[in-house]
């Protein structure tokens, strides 16, 4: 089972290239092989036929012990007995010469042409002194570490995996190694390398390194092209080709396919398609361009009541028309056929809104709202009309209330100061004496009192005023003439 080496990427599957590396193994394993293959999502590494490193030599060597002192055996004494001899050198005076002989030659002996006589004295002569035995010190040999010793190694080889310049795995292995390394984004191609170092090679060289490298495939889904078929023009449909890395689009010939246009997407070298459509077909649509009927908003004539009392306000009827592009618009008054250029103020009457497509050869009204009259040519609606009746609004006047007023009177007493104006009973107005004029023309001997009634709170004066009242500037006026005669004359 392969080993899964984690990286920062996720996965998918599609076959990629297989790259094999020459043998990287010891002389005894010349069949070693390294192989790696990459799909769009995983790099598979398979190493086989390599060798473990065997032990070389012994861990320790036996060498002479420099501190070793060997044993010394005992030495026996070697000796003999010396015999003293003498000879007369001179008689007078007597002088004798003595010497030791290593052996007893008897009582006399001739030596050096002289006669020697044994003196009777002897002495021990040691030739070899006796030496006692000595034991050995230490051991004659010792164990030391072998500098040439190499221990056995079950995983002496290494493999390093790099993806897009980043090392994702560094592993030691023995006779073989297998792993799957996720590559990351499956929609792009990844540069990868597998570096294998064996502890020795088939030619006997040590630490030989070889590298496998390559590019993964990329798994992509081709983006669907956009079909554009403008209305009103024959055989103008075409494909808008998207820009997709790894895919090539080719439009097929449609000259003999009754207006059908096909397009095929092909994966480029190093790319493969996921499951999905790689070919699309559309049929030319030579239908006329559909124009929209103008949107018409009709506002009838209305009468708005006054805020207080009085006449209502008439707002004339109007048309608001949103005219789409490619459409000619005409508003006509039926009574005289006049074209209306400003439909914001329409007098009562009948009007026709007429819309016509500008290009009758390529355009048509494809959807007509209810209420419109259609006009057809060659099976296509090229003109529509909408009739509108403008009706005068009902009046909405609010007449003002009529004031209730009685004629004023005057209490005429002698003199002037005692004269008094008595206002008549009233509702909806106010009274005042506007002026006093003495001896007015035609009324000498009097004081003319100008009495005024002013309507209030929206009231209006009645159509006929009581007494001698008359109207000036919407106000009721009475003229009263009390006498200015003095009291003495009155008494007489």
Explain this structure to me?
Helix content is 1%, strand content 48%. The protein is built from one helix and 40 strands. The protein is elongated. The chain starts with a strand and ends with a helix.
The value of Rg in angstroms is: 73 Å
Shape: elongated
User: Total strand count, please?
Assistant: 40
How would you classify the quaternary structure?
Answer: single chain
Structural class: mainly beta
Low-confidence stretches: 6-31
Sheet-strand content, in percent, reads over 45%
N-C termini distance: 156 Å
Q: How are strands sequenced across the largest beta sheet?
A: 1-13-4-3-2
Look at the structure and give the mean pLDDT.
86
Number of helices: 1
Helix content: under 10%
Note the main sheet.
5 strands, mixed
Q: Could you write a compact summary of the structure shown?
A:
With 492 residues, this protein is mainly β. It has a 5-stranded mixed sheet with strand order 1-13-4-3-2, with no helix packed on it. Strands 7-6-9-8 form a 4-stranded antiparallel sheet, with no helix packed on it.
Topology readout:
Layout: E1 3-4, E2 18-21, E3 33-38, E4 42-48, E5 60-64, E6 78-90, E7 95-101, E8 108-111, E9 114-128, E10 141-145, E11 157-163, E12 166-173, E13 177-182, E14 191-197, E15 209-215, E16 218-220, E17 226-228, E18 238-240, E19 247-251, E20 260-267, E21 271-273, E22 279-283, E23 289-292, E24 295-299, E25 302-304, E26 313-315, E27 318-322, E28 327-333, E29 349-357, E30 363-367, E31 373-377, E32 380-390, E33 404-405, E34 409-411, E35 420-422, E36 426-427, E37 429-440, E38 443-455, E39 470-472, E40 475-480, H1 487-491
């Amino acid at each position: 089972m392969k080993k899964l080496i984690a990286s920062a990427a996720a996965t998918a599957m599609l076959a990629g290239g297989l790259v094999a590396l020459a043998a990287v193994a010891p002389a005894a394993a010349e069949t070693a092989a390294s192989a790696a293959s990459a799909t769009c999502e995983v790099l598979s590494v398979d190493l086989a036929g390599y060798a473990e490193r065997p032990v070389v030599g012994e861990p320790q060597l036996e060498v002479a012990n420099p501190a070793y002192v060997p044993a010394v055996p005992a030495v026996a004494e070697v000796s003999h007995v010396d015999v003293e001899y003498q000879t007369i050198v001179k008689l007078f005076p007597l002088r004798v010469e003595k010497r030791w002989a290593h052996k007893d030659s008897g009582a006399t002996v001739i030596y050096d042409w002289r006669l020697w006589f044994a003196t009777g004295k002897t002495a021990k002569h040691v030739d070899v002194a006796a030496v006692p035995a000595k034991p050995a010190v230490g051991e004659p040999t010792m164990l030391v570490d072998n500098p040439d010793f190499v221990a056995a190694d079950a995983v002496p080889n290494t493999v390093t995996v790099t993806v897009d310049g980043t090392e994702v795995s560094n592993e030691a292995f023995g006779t073989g190694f297998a792993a799957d390394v996720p590559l990351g984004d499956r929609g792009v191609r990844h540069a990868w390398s597998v570096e294998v170092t064996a502890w020795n090679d088939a030619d006997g060289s040590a630490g030989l390194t070889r590298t496998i490298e390559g590019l993964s495939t990329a798994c992509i889904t081709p983006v669907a092209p956009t079909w554009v078929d403008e209305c009103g023009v024959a055989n103008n449909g075409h494909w808008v080709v998207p820009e997709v890395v790894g895919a090539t689009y080719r439009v097929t010939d449609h000259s003999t396919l009754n207006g059908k246009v096909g397009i095929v997407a092909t994966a480029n070298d190093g790319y493969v398609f996921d499951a999905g459509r790689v070919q699309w077909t559309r049929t030319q649509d030579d239908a006329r361009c559909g124009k929209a009927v103008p949107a018409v908003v009709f506002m009838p004539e209305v009468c708005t009541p006054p805020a207080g009392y009085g006449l209502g306000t008439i707002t004339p009827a109007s048309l608001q028309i949103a005219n789409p592009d490619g459409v000619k618009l005409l508003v006509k008054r039926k009574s005289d056929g006049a074209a209306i250029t400003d439909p914001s103020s329409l007098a009562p009457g009948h009007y026709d809104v007429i819309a016509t497509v500008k290009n009758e050869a390529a355009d048509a009204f494809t959807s007509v709202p209810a209420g419109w009259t259609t006009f057809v040519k060659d099976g296509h609606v090229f003109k529509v009309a909408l009739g509108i009746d403008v009706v005068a609004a009902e009046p909405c006047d609010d007449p003002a209330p009529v004031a209730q007023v009685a004629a004023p009177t005057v209490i005429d007493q002698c003199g002037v100061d005692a004269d008094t104006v008595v206002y008549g009973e009233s509702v909806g107005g106010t009274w005042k004496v506007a002026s006093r004029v003495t001896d007015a023309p035609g009324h000498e001997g009097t004081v003319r009192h100008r009495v005024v009634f002013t309507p209030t709170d929206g009231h209006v004066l009645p159509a006929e005023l009581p007494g001698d009242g008359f109207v000036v500037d919407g106000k009721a006026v009475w003229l009263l003439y009390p006498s200015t005669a003095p009291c003495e004359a009155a008494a007489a």
